[in-house]
Every structure is written in structure tokens, then in C-alpha cells.
Amino acid sequence: MSVRLLVGTAKGGFWVTSDDRRQWEVEGPFFKGWKVTAGLRLEGGGFVAAVASEIYGPAIFLSPDGESWEQVEDGPAYPDGDDRRLRQIWTLRENRGTVYAGVQDAGVFTSGDGGRSWQPVPGLNEHETRGGWMPGAGGLCCHAFLFDHNDPDRMWCGISAVGVFRTDDGGATWIPKNRGVYWAHEDEEFKEIGHCVHGLAQDPDDPRRIYRQDHSGMYRSRDGGESWARNQHGLPSTFGFPVVLDAASRFLFSVPLEADQYRLPVGGALQVFRSMDGGDSWDSASAGLPEVHAYGGVLRGAMAVDNLEPGGVYMGTTSGTLHVSRDLGGSWTNLPVILPRILHVSVWA
Amino acid sequence: MDIPSTTRVAGRPRPTVTVFLPSLLEPVTGGVRELTACGGSLREVFADLVAREPRLKPHLFNEASEFRRHVLCFHNGTNTRWLGSPAAGENDDGQGGRRDGWDTPVSEGDTVVFMQAVSGG
I want to staple A109 with a disulfide (CB 3.0 to 4.6 A). Which of A76, A172, A259, B51 is the partner? Predict the structure, then answer.
């Protein structure tokens, strides 16, 4: 089974491909000099890529084949004269024919035509708590979406330093869902926000079962976000960014970092932690990863699973190294590349 | 785009200027780095430029229709930020981005060069 990775870095995108998950080919960079911040393969074919430049801002590009790219004219944008700025597109997801973009300054935009044109989601973008939204260290960004395959009107989004929001009416209204999560900063007026979600994962069988790597720890909800409880037994640090779930095994993966003021791999070792029991306990699954003098972390969008059997796990670091496991974290291969700072990893089998 | 045009004299042909883009914008224009745009003033040239190539608009201008913070524009070799009144305000990023030089007249054959402000090491 061939596997194709889109590796988005601070200086361009790279395709990393393999027919057997042993021998890998690297192509790139494309969008040289631009940050590649998110990628999506459309269900109907073709690719969507989000890019950004500190100078020239963000944009969305479409490609039929991953080779030729064309920028869309009618991309996500706040209205002219708005005090918000579209600084970066953090995530792209597709659900039931609609493409979703989570952006910074925090907001959600949707496309019903495969990414060619985009519309804002007012229920979220103009949320009554918006005045209390404060940016975290990574900026005020909407970076995660989850969907309920049993209910087309229900979905979740995660906004850094604000929290998780859920809609039950197709996006018309959104309700903060952060009860049980420790505050990153407490808002004087809006007590239901100020929770710094870093990453989200969801059980494919039960959409109400959600895993949350938060600034304040690793959490789990069994009721669609109505309540949260810590599930971090065995983790060497409760701080980190990505949490991903392999659909076949239901194994969870995270990369703990030492405290928010350092954000470094614990003990200078690049370690992946795995839970094989739905988050009840975590153990290191790091065989083959650099054990000493490894200080590159893994950002929230830079870890992915391929959902093959056995499942492949992929992650890129802020030091530009790329790591592959073909056996659900049982062992790791360090690919012989040093890329720019890795922001995003998508994988398609 | 909110770049209001100045009044033009009816029937007078608008000058054509050549616009040069930096290599970083090649993905936006499909590799094209040299374009033409028309207008009697820089303001009209900018409006015509983004009308001809709408994909450039979000990369050169912010939501307030000012230059992005680190976008530089030179008219015949002169930084357009130096063309207007020094008393004009800065944009809301606290940086340049002023539009006070945009009413500068242009002539046939003028050049407009966009660059990024790359400084430091």
C-alpha cells in the first residue's frame, strides 16, 4: 500500500512517498519560501493546501494532482475594514461535502465547492464571547475540527486559549464545552472560555468520546464535551500539542513537552507516548527515536496516522526531522532529512 | 477593493505602467513577475492591478486596503511611503502602510516595483 505524506514546513511543502513504508522518496520544496500550514485531499479528488507568509499573508491553493497549484481568488477573508486579520489558515477538513478552514485570527470559514469560494460562519466568528478571546503563544487560532458521523448538525472546533465549542444546529450557534478543564486564563465576564485546547482526537465509533491535549493537561470527554476529566496517567509531562488516534486499533499518541515555559522534549529525548486503553494509561512508544540531545518538539498539526493495518504514525519536529513508525509506535525510523521547521503533516494511504 | 479612484479627465487615455513583482509571489501569479496596469495615479494603478490579478490583493494589501506591514512599493525608484505627507498616520499595526502617497500622478512608462522589507540577519 503506497503512502503519501504532505509535510508542510516554515519554508515550503514536501511530498514524502513510499510504496512499502520502508523506502521513502522526498520531493520539494513547493511553495518555496512560504509556510505550508495545512493540507487536505478532497473526497472527490484533488488537493487543497493552505500557505502563509509573514510578509504576504495567507492563501489557499488547489491542485488536481499535487503538482500544479492555483490560488483561489475567493479565499477566506474578513470584511474590508474589519479589525480582525486573516493571518494563517491552521486546519482544513472536509465533512459531508463541505470543506472547513480554521483560521487565525480565530474563525471558521466553509466552502461548498471544493475550496474555490469561502463563506464565514457568523455563529462562531461573531460569538458573544468574542470580546474575551485572548491569543495564546501561538496566536488566536482555530486549529481543530471534529464531526459527528451520526448527526450532521453536530460538530466541534478548538480555538487556542479560548476552548472547545460545539454546534448542534449545523453551525448556526456554538456553545463553549470546557467544563472540567483548568483555565489557561480566566475571563472576568465569560467564565466558559479561557481554556487553551492544543489538540483534539475522536473515537471513530463513538463521536462523543473525545480526547483533548490541553495546555493544562490531557483530558477525555465521554459525553461530547459536556464534561472533561484528566486522563494522563503515565505521561512524563502533561503539556504537549498533538493527540492523534489510530482508527483501527484505537491507540492514542501524544508527544509530551516539558512545561509551557520551556516546550522542550522531556529530558532531551524525543518521546512518543501511547495509550492502548482509551487514555486510561500512557506508556512510552519511542524505540528508535533520538534518545539524547533531541530538543525539537512536535507541533499540533505535525503528527498523523495512516489508519492502515498495522497503523503507521508520522511526525515532524520543529528541528525539521521526520519520523515514521509502521507498527503503531512499536519502533521508529528517522528519515534522513533535515527540513525546515515542520508545521504540518498529512498522510494519505 | 477600497481604493477610491481620483477623478479622471474624460477621454484622456490612462498611462500604462509596468509592475514588477518579487519572486516570492510567483506561485500567486503562475510565475509571472512583470505585469502592466493603468491609471492616472498610483491609487488607480493599484486598483487596476488587483482588478487584473485579484489573487494579488490579499498579499499586497491588508483588510484596511493599506499595504501589508512589510510590503514595500517603489514608484520610479522612490519608496511610495516617502511620497506623501509625513503627518499622515500609520496603519493599525503601528507600522507604515500609509496611503498618503497614492495620489501621486503616474506617466506612461513609469515603473512600480513591489518588494518585501527584508532586514536583519
Answer: A76
